[in-house]
Write a structure and sequence with these properties.
Largest sheet: none
Helix content: 55-70%
Strand content: under 5%
Oligomer: single chain
Radius of gyration: 21 Å
Structural class: mainly alpha
Mean pLDDT: 89
Order of helices and strands: HHHHHHHHHHHHHHHHHHH
Shape: globular
Number of strands: 0
Distance between the termini: 31 Å
Length: 403
């Protein structure tokens, strides 16, 4: 049992940020050199050692933008049709790709499709990093303390994959900052996160538990408006194809007998699956993890809504990681930022510091363990959430949120 104030839970007499920065820099430089050395500068788009084009997942985003100007864009949820169109762009020996996002992503992808692939990728990356840094600086005035975040494994994986994690991390940080100051704007941002559903699945629970009904309504209206606008522009078929074709195809990643996604998803599902457990057993345990995540978020925000917002945000993000079977390593970026923020300070609780450090290195730990089909990293996030919840419950005079 800890006998220190909750706000001092993650502080240390040493400066853990210095060590994270040093080791993060070593990791980032080494990984960058290794990645660049594998690049094959072939026309029209360079590829890496895995035969994926530079930017990897950005190819899908860019193709969503191109599809927005084509007839019947939702036909690309069929991987056979989609990959037939991709072959002239990526080559006949390119990897098999599939669409995984809701059709509303076409609304923001369309402008980037007006540019060539590499130019669009550069603009996308600069936009995401710039927005993330701009929002993150409002959390801490000392800019150099953002260095370990930018140098983190989560950030590196985001950069080489061309993913949206810098942008969505900026949105998440803005949401947490504005929940009470600008609840309507926070709700709008939550509604926009439906473009990447796994990031916002627990927000309805949090908003209802804490009695933030204006934010809840704002988020719901935004999500419905986004879906309605998508339907008005592309027709209702885009949603039926997404639900009937896109989601089942996406689930094939979870049922893959080769478990190729295991090194990239630090979830309970994959940490059970790699032990040789069946899909059914792994999903059953993951479902229990989802229930646990919902319960932790509800209890924390219902009875401890006045606790340190930074600690609550970190707990929420940890629950988001293990509450879903499909959560990629680059999506851990916001949790990485919160881990660094919790480690910033003067004094140290050993267990709190250890868990925060493990969360920082979570993507690389999952890669190492997942490659050898070993469980472990997927249980760091639930351990952190349970640890924080226990400390919240031990804090004096927990105040329930307004009904």
């Amino acid at each position: 049992m800890f006998h220190i104030p909750l706000r001092d839970l993650f502080r240390d007499d040493r400066d853990p940020i210095r060590s994270l920065t040093v080791f993060g820099l070593i990791f980032f430089i080494g990984s960058t050199i290794g990645y660049v050395c594998t690049l094959s500068l072939v026309a029209p788009i360079p590829r890496d050692a895995t035969t994926l084009v530079v930017g990897r997942d950005f190819m899908n985003f860019w193709m969503y933008g191109r599809a927005a100007f084509m007839p019947d864009p939702s036909r690309f949820y069929d991987p056979e049709i989609y990959n037939a169109v991709l072959r002239p762009l990526v080559g006949a020996d390119g990897p098999w790709l599939n669409w995984s996002y809701p059709p509303s992503i076409m609304l923001i992808a369309a402008p980037f499709a007006q540019l060539g692939y590499l130019t669009a990728l550069l603009c996308w990356t600069v936009l995401g990093v710039s927005m993330f840094v701009a929002v993150a600086r409002r959390y801490h005035a000392v800019d150099w303390r953002l260095l370990p975040v930018i140098l983190s494994p989560a950030a590196f994986f985001c950069l080489i994959s061309g993913q949206s994690s810098f942008l969505t991390a900026a949105m998440l940080l803005a949401i947490f900052a504005m929940l009470d100051r600008r609840p309507i704007v926070a709700g709008i941002l939550i509604g926009l996160l439906t473009l990447k559903p796994q990031l916002g699945l627990l927000f309805p629970i949090m908003l209802m538990a804490s009695g933030r009904w204006r934010t809840f309504v704002s988020a719901a209206v935004t999500a419905l408006a986004l879906a309605g606008l998508t339907t008005a522009i592309f027709g209702p078929k885009v949603w039926t194809d997404y639900l009937q074709i896109g989601i089942p195809v996406q689930n094939l990643i979870l049922t893959d007998p080769k478990m190729l996604a295991a090194p990239f998803m630090p979830t309970i599902f994959w940490n059970i699956r790699v032990t040789g457990a069946s899909y059914g057993l792994a999903m059953a345990i993951q479902s229990a993890g989802c229930v646990l995540a919902i319960a932790i978020v509800f209890l924390a925000y219902r009875f401890h809504a006045k606790a340190d917002p930074l600690v609550l945000s970190a707990l929420f993000l940890a629950c988001s990681i293990f509450g879903s079977p499909y959560f990629q390593s680059y999506d851990v970026l916001t949790m990485t930022f919160m881990a660094v923020m919790l480690l910033t300070g003067a004094k140290a609780d050993a267990r709190g510091q250890l868990l925060a450090r493990l969360l920082y290195w979570l993507p690389i730990l999952q890669m190492a363990f997942g490659h050898f089909h070993l469980p472990g990293p997927g249980f760091i996030a639930p351990a952190f959430a349970l640890f924080v919840l226990r400390e919240l419950r031990a804090a004096p005079h927990p105040a329930p949120a307004p009904a």
